[in-house]
Amino acid sequence: MTDTAQTPRRQRGEYAKSEATRQAILDAALEVFAEAGYRSGSLREIAQRVGMSEAGLLHHFPRKSALLQAVLDHRDELARSIVDFTSDDGVETLRNLVDLARHNASVPGVVELYCTVSAEATAPDHPAHDYFRRRYEQVRESTRDAFERIAGAGRLAPGLDPGRAAVATIALMDGLQVQWLLDPASTDMAEALAEYFRTLVRGFDLTALEDLLDAVAEDAS
After folding, report:
1. Which of 119, 37, 22 is nearest to 45 (CA)?
2. Which of 40, 81, 196, 205 could cross-link 36 (Cys pair, CB 3.0–4.6 Å)?
């Protein structure tokens, strides 16, 4: 009976330890890939930073490409927690993108990894090529949908095509990241993105007024 009672606790402890090790590997991989790129960054270097053998690392991630995918997935999970592309309010989605740009300024290693690996992944034989191709398709579509909802609300600048606005937004965000990595003092990524959205969306900064109008509408109903 004692062994049975202790087994669940032992399993939970082993799981927590394994998850902690996995997270440490992802953090080290992020650093190495950001510094050297995916192709030049070695599993040996990643393992050394975690204080384990390369064989031990391969127990958690059997292939280098699997490790890269896990790092990119972790980055995407965080981005999705900041940006709500499903919001009925397209303006709120754009504000979330500004929040994401502000967050990115606090994690230069993540930004450097994204810029480095996305450039490498333009080669068709790169293991992340399909990932980035799909990701850009999804982000273009989601951002276009946000601009379409804004247009439907009558708040998009006249004559602006939602699809082209989405492409330009993504290009601006990526370009700002490169400039910021080269010289962090050269630009405020979040403010530059917000300024761009102000030229496209009427009342982009009127959050307080919108909250008040929503409250009045609720009281009236």
Report:
1. 37
2. 40
pLDDT in tens, 65-78: 889 888 888 888 88
Separation between Cα atoms, residue 136 and residue 141, nearest integer Å: 8
Q: Decide: helix, strand or coil at residue 186.
A: helix
Compute mean pLDDT per 10 residues along the chain, 221 residues long, and list them.
Answer: 53 70 89 81 93 93 89 86 94 96 90 89 92 95 97 95 98 97 95 96 75 62 67
User: Is the C-alpha dihedral spanning 104, 108, 113, 115 positive or negative?
Assistant: positive
User: Using CA atoms, how far apart are residues 130 and 128, in angstroms rounded to an integer?
Assistant: 6
First vs last C-alpha separation in the chain: 61
Q: State residue 85's pLDDT score.
A: 94
Structure tokens at 7: 């087994």
Length of the chain: 221
What's the predicted TM-score (pTM) here? 0.77
In angstroms, the CA 22 to CA 6 distance is 24
